[in-house]
Structures are given as C-alpha cells and as structure tokens.
Amino acid sequence: MSAAASSIAVRVTEWQATHGRHALPWQNTRDPYLVWLSEIMLQQTQVATVMDYFPRFLAHLPDVQALAAAPADEVLGLWSGLGYYSRARNLHKCAQQVVERFGGEFPRSAALLETLPGIGRSTAAAIASFCFGERVAILDANVKRVLTRVLGFAADLARPANERLLWDRVTELLPHGSQATLDIEMPRYTQGLMDLGATLCMPRKPLCLLCPLQEDCVAHVEGREEAYPVRTRTLKRSSESWWLLLARDGAGRVWLERRPDIGIWAGLHCLPVFPHREGADTALREAGVVGEPHELPVFLHVLTHKDLHLHPVEALLPPGCEPQSAGRWATREEWTALGLPAPVRKLLDGIG
Length: 352
Hints:
This protein is an alpha+beta fold.
C-alpha cells in the first residue's frame, strides 16, 4: 500500500474517532442483525426517518428468528411509510434464509452475505466490516462521492467496467494489519467514510475546510468538487394518473385489495386502483351504488422514477355490497397494522 493510501486510512479513522457520529441507535454494536437492518433501512432513506422506524421495528421483531417467523403482513406493516417496499420483502426472505441456511447466524464473510436476498456488495461489506472486521470496501452513494473526489476518479460510472475499476481503487485504500487491528480499524474506517459523506462531503457546497482528506483530495485541488462522481446516464422520469376508490361501508370499514407482486407498491394492501375514472365508476355500478361518488382533492406522490397524480373517489356502499371480489373490508384497527403505501395511509388517516 502506498504512503498516500495508508495516510488516507489513518486520517479517516482518526477523524471518525473525534468528529464522527457515535450516538445513532444502530452504532456501537457488532450484532449483524442490527447492522443489517439499519443498512437496509438507510438505503435511499434519510437518517432522521430511520431513527423513528428502527426502534419500532426492533420492538416487534428483535432478532432474525422473530423476523423470519413473522407474517409478511406484519413486516410490511412495520415498514409502511418507508417506501421502496421490495426492501421489506427481501428483508423477510433474507431472515428466513439466514435461519434455514445458516442456523440463525449471519455468515461472517461479505462473499456469503452477498448470496442472501436484498444484500448487495456494499451492504455485505458494511456488515462484514462492522461486525467481523473483514477487510472489504463499501461503496454506497455517499462513500462513492467521497472517494471519487479524493481519487479524482473521472471515469463514467454509467459503464460497468468503470464501476469495477473504482471498486479496485477503493479497496487499495483500506486499512492493513493483523486481524486484531482490523477488528478495530475496519469499523472506524467504514463509519468514517459514511460520516464524511453525510456531514461534510455533500453533493453541493461540501465543507472541504473541515475535511481531514482535503490535502489529498484531487477534486479539491482542482476546485471541481461538484464534478464528481461522473455518471452520464440519467433516470428518465414519467408521470401517471391513478384513480383510488375509497369505498366505505356503514360500519366505517374501507375496502382494500392486495397489489400484484410486481410493480409499484407490489404486495401491499391498497385501495382499488384504476387508470381512468371510468374504471372506478364501473366498479361502483357493479356493486349496486347509485349516484355520483364524491371526488376528493387530487394529490401528487413522487417516486424515484415517476410522478403519480392520485385522484381519490369516495363512495358509501350499502349493506352487502362489495366493489371487487379480490379484496376485503378492513376496520381502522386492521388497516393501521397492514402494509399500506404511504399516500394511501395518509389518505385513510384523514378520513373520519
């Protein structure tokens, strides 16, 4: 390892010990269940949001055995509002495989961890680094930003070959030493890179003067911090309009159905969805509803790749009528415990 690479590892670990984050609820532990759960929750989700969900999830499902044995609806219910629900489904599958394949103990290597559902290369490395002191690199979005700037890595990361090259480069920066040394240094180094990306090396206006790596940072020397990382491929956004049928009965129950296993809100309980207003009207006529349903205000729900313009249509159904055979009536107590899309939960929370 070059002197410069060694210096980077030392300065990151020293900075983390003094200036990094130490009070997050998933820190200061070598329990892979806690580290894994936090890593999955933190994917594309802000720390402040996860701070609310993490302890609540653990209160219901405190270990991997409890999670593996839990019904899918309970897992999705606890996840409801965090978004990206494939994470919750993979979380459940992963727990079941940890129990079935590994006797309830998480494997101790990143290579084996990566064979589990929902655990990619960076997440596997984070678990192995934090819990087992394995010398493996992470490369989540924040760390990718930090290290492409430090290295001046200008290759286009939209190309897989360049992504692989970056993995090789960042692996060269990892701390060296005996396993006893790595047991201490790898968690500090891994956490230090995460902390730098979250608190100093932001996408816009990074706080370079406070960064322990500014002297080695190629992007800072160039005065082009915001030019990194380089990725030419951009996500194409689209928009759709959906009509949500808010059907209620005289007892205050709402009609819910389960979404398909693929696509938006896959596997969640939801109000019936229609691509056109006519679909909702037809469902109500077939259920025996007479008269115009009540339109609620349209609202926007923003996904990573799509804007959903949601049009709620509310109707009170007479006794014995059901809008669709594929769903069921749910009381407030029942639907609050189910996995619901965040905008649907917000809509139901607002009804009388």
